[in-house]
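DM from R.C. (forwarded with permission)

"hey, sorry to bug you on a friday — could you get me a structure for this? deadline for the figure draft is monday and I only need the backbone to look sensible"
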Amino acid sequence: MAGKSRSSENKKKIAPAALTLADYLQKILTARVYDVAHETPLDLARSLSRRVGNQVFLKREDSQPVFSFKLRGAYNKMVHLSTEQLKRGVICASAGNHAQGVALGARQLGCRALVVMPVTTPKLKIDAVRALGGDVVLHGESYSDAYLHATELEREQGLTFVHPFDDPDVIAGQGTIGMEILRQHQGPIDAVFVAIGGGGLVSGVAAYIKSVRPEIKVIGVQMNDSDAMLRSVKAGKRVTLGDVGLFSDGTAVKLVGEETFRLARELVDEFVVVDTDAVCAAIKDVFQDTRSILEPAGAMGVAAVKQYAEQHKLKGRTFVSITCGANMNFDRLRFVAERAEVGEQREALFAVTIPEARGSFKRFCELIGPRAVTEFNYRISDSKQAHVFVGVAIANREEADKLGRNFARHGFEALDLTDDELAKQHLRHMVGGRSELAQDERLYRFIFPERPGALMRFLSSMHPGWNISLFHYRNQGADYGRILVGIQVPKEDKKAFRDFLETLAYPCEDETDNPVYRMFLR
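My reply, with the result:
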């Protein structure tokens, strides 16, 4: 009996053999995904390809029924469960896209789905899960927090856990994307770019590609504030992040899976780290080519293609980016549009110090030249110096450096804020306030045509004795701009000022008596 007990104990200690590439190839080829998913297009991004000088194809997983690739792995896992397991129901933890896949799979298979989601999950994804029949529990700030709570509910309610990434059947389901890519494009492919959160997508795609066409590079893409896989690979063991960024909520994972770490470490050729501005620019790039709006995780691969091609000076290559999701909250588009121009290096931001003297503002604007002013914030605050926050449209990063040097040469000290996160997120909206120096100030809202010279026409038409004491403008992409201007006009010049407004012929509204102005700015 004692010998038998030791033998049983030894057997328990023997871990199951790791699945080989051949095992994964077989699992991918036999995966059950097309009951709920469809084969998505592999589209050439023509405009982006011309700009970067390489062929860039988009694997359009954003066009799936749940607007994400996640239903592939979720359903492939669930369809392999026993009748008894399905009868008890399934549970998952997800930032949104896997949740929708599980809910759709549960509806297809006729079982209950309980979904634990972080409280930071976009409402769009929560509503989508509920619309598919899933029961939603909100818990924690990240996927990892939601996961721990889901494991507790799994034990309490006897449910079967459907992992979003760390499961061979889930990985195999995602691997069918790699299978489709190679079937759809049988010519040369230099690299496939894959966003990484927990690692299920990159593991499945890499397993298939390295089994069939190992010469193709698989490049993993991570956000600079959620790079658990990259840190783990560098460390040679799984690393838990203390915190993760939430802009790309679909990849906000503190700890990658054991199996996905093993596969990524073995199969992923390189990693590229992208930031928020680059992803915002990539969302815009894809919109221009497809008229579709990706969520941040869905655009990470496109951002990485651009960064990789520029860094390595590559031309004439063929790249594939998996656009893995499009579950974007509409109200986040304001932030994306704001940051896309900086991410594309088409906007430079400066804090400029100019003498507080009549004519200085005009002289400064003349230095900007024919470039479009994208933003201008200023409030009189000092009798000798004025500090303005200005955005200028540029062609490339080098032009911003040149513009800053030109400001300095002409006596305008300039601080480049293009890469300053505080300035981009907050300070640009906070320039202003009350000023004791704003005597005889009149406040007007103008509508300017969005064309070069409109601002200079305004400044040139002004009486030299009047001073601009407040100026706020932000280009919103329309064919006209809304501008708020404070002008110090002596009482004896009231008639001349009215004549100026009529001559200018820009639509305007007098806001001098507006109670909001008097409360915050007067």
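R.C.: lifesaver. Residues 1-13 have pLDDT under 50 and may be disordered.
me: no worries. The longest strand covers residues 347-355.
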